[in-house]
Amino acid sequence: MVHTVAWCDTCNILCGLQDTRFTVWYYPNTVYVDRDILPKTLSERDASEFSKNPHIMSFVGNQVTIRRADGSLVHISISPYPAILHEYVGSSKWEDAVRLCRFVKEQTMWACLAAMAIANRDMITAEIAYAAIGEFSFVNRKPKREEHLSEEAVKVIASLPDLTFMHAKVLMFPATLTPSTSSQGQVD
């Protein structure tokens, strides 16, 4: 159970204290894009040092201020790179975002970039980011048939190569993107 949360003042990053864990969700919108990579887009650390009933006072830039039960303030620094990634994506600087992730070499950054790319329908960047986090099934999968597609649309989409199919699927139905459990690449 989360006791206290705070949003970053400069970008879409959320931090919270839950039980004995301090958690930072670097791209919370991942839950709407691809829930499978959500655990890869967050950072957790032990929060037992804050004693019982800590409260997040502020989240400014990459600095989080926590008030412990005894009234003392504790300052925590988080990685500055996710905020820079948010800035690049917000400006549609996809090449710079990929370059940043290659420089940082953290799975968390690549997972955030993958989710951001899908949310912004940049399939080339999404493919690079998913490959970097080892989600090769993203590139090769053929998602299940949607109930509201016509039979003709299903046939046309099913005849496309895997990558083209995935691009068309994400552009048409970004909220329904889920990995297929079928490895044969068949449309149900």
Automatic annotation (TrEMBL):
Q: Name one Pfam family in it.
A: TPR_IFT80_172
Please give the InterPro entries that the UniProt record associates with this protein.
Answer: Beta-prop_IFT80_2nd (IPR056456), TPR_IFT80_172_dom (IPR056157)
Question: An example of a Gene Ontology BP annotation on this entry?
Answer: cilium assembly
Every IFT80/172/WDR35 TPR domain range: 109-139
Keyword list (alphabetical) reads:
Cell projection, Cilium, Flagellum, WD repeat
GO cellular component term of the entry, any:
intraciliary transport particle B
This protein's name:
Intraflagellar transport protein 80-like protein
Looking up PANTHER family in the UniProt record yields:
INTRAFLAGELLAR TRANSPORT PROTEIN 80 HOMOLOG (PTHR24098:SF11), OUTER SEGMENT 5 (PTHR24098)
Q: Where is the IFT80 second beta-propeller domain?
A: 1-81
**Signal peptide position in this chain?**
none
Q: Does the keyword Magnesium apply?
A: no
